[in-house]
Every structure is written in C-alpha cells, then in structure tokens.
Amino acid sequence: MNKLRSIVSVCMMAAAFLLLVSCASPKKFVYLNDMTPGKQYPVNTETVTIVHENDRLDIKVSCRNPELAVPFNSQVGAYKMSVDGGVSAAGAETLEKGYRVDADGNIVFPILGKIKVAGKSLKQVSDMIAGMISEGGYIRDPQVSIEFLNFKYTVLGAVGGKGTFTVDGDRITLIEAIAKAGDLTTNARLDRITVIRTVNGKQEIYYNDIRTADIFMSPTYYLQQNDIVYVEPKQMPRNEKAWQTASFTISVLSLFSSVIWALSAIGVFGA
User: Fold this and answer.
1) Which CATH number fits domain 151-233: 3.10.560.10, 1.10.3300.10, 3.30.1330.10, 3.50.50.60?
2) 56-148 sits in which CATH class?
3) Which residue, 21, 145, 151, 267, is most buried by CB atoms nearer than 10 A?
4) pLDDT for 53-74, tens place per residue?
5) Is the Cα torsion angle 248, 250, 255, 260 positive or negative in sign?
C-alpha cells in the first residue's frame, strides 16, 4: 500500500510539473514603454480626411430660416406645404440615407446638381457647397456640415480578429483600431505596424512602432477612410506547430523518465 501511495504521489507531482510547463505564460510586451507618468506628449491632429469614390456622405444644410434649407436637405426633390405655410420634404423616409460618391467622384445634390467631391477634404466639400448655395442666391449665410456614413478600415496580420470595421463618424486612432481588432497577438512585431493609405489614386505605406510615444506624431495615428492596417508577424526560426509538438514530446519523455526513476528508487523493479 505504501509503495502504491508513493507511486501515485510521484505521478501526481510529475503531472503537475508537466501542466506547469505546458501552460507557461507567453512572453508579454508593453505598448508605449518609453512614456513617463505626468509628462505631456504632443499628438498629430493635422489629419485631413479625404473623400473617395463609393464613400457615402451625410450632408446637412442649415440657416437662420430653417424652411429655406429644406430643399437642400432632401434627396427626392419633392416637397409639400402644410396648411400654415411650412415647407417639408415628401417621401424622404423611403430613401437610402446619404449621398454616395459615384465612380467619377461626383454626388448629385438637390438644387445644385452634380458636384465633384472626390479628392477633396470634408471641409473643402463643405465650403464648396456653402459657396454654391450662397452665390446662387438661395441662402445668404448657409452652414453645411458633412460626415461619413460608411467610414471603414481593414486590419490584417497578427491580431486577434482580422476584418473590415466601420466607425461612427470619421475619427479613430491606430491604437483604437488595433483594440477593436482584438489586440495584437504574441507573434506581432510591435515595431512593424503598417498602414497602407490611398493618396491621389496611389498606395502609400507608413510604418509605426507602437512601443514608443513617437506613434502619436505619426501621419497615420488617426486613420482615414479605407486605410489598411497590417501587423507584421515575427519571423520564426522554425515552424511554430512543429516547435510546440517537439516541446510536448520532450515534456512527455521527461515525465516518463521521472516515473521510471521513482519506481526504481522505491524498489518496484527490484528482485
């Protein structure tokens, strides 16, 4: 009985050792590890969001007399007048929301017609529409607000959840985008966070190092519409699966050797 208890004890100890080895925590990494508490760091806020083909824009026109702006806030061109003389859009609830930029970079805006918007910033488009309304004599001092309805970006590579994500509005940081994609995996290169951006019809590549506060001044710290974020994985010296298999095999052999040694020590294999 004592020999049996000894055998069980040895096996349990060996199994516990194997469990600890197989469940060892991976090496951890730290973002922004050069930051000092209490110190202020500048952030690149000079981000210009550019309109591209297939973007969908929400455009609202306002002024001191709301009724004058109604025709510009309708996508149907049909209006109705109430008994008290008020003007409102008819049937707008059945329309697809926003103005989609066509393949030629244009939108069709009420009253003003076709307007070229691709390649311009949101502010440039806003100022242009406000100027056209004012110069046309429709409204003296119109206010035009524009935002994206389909702002999206894509995250690929060594992250928890790859995919294309949408944003409510037109502003998200690179760090927030990575967090929404399930954070970086342990196989990610922190010094190789790549952002691919379309500029004037051509692809530009930017590299970021998430370990340092320099990322705050990166031109891609704030993402733009249709940006692609690629997190480069580490270059492993051997196939990761093969390495895990080899490690498990070594652990099993060590466990077996420990059990045989223990059994021999207590005389189980004795004469």
Assistant:
1) 3.10.560.10
2) alpha beta
3) 151
4) 989 999 999 999 999 999 999 7
5) positive
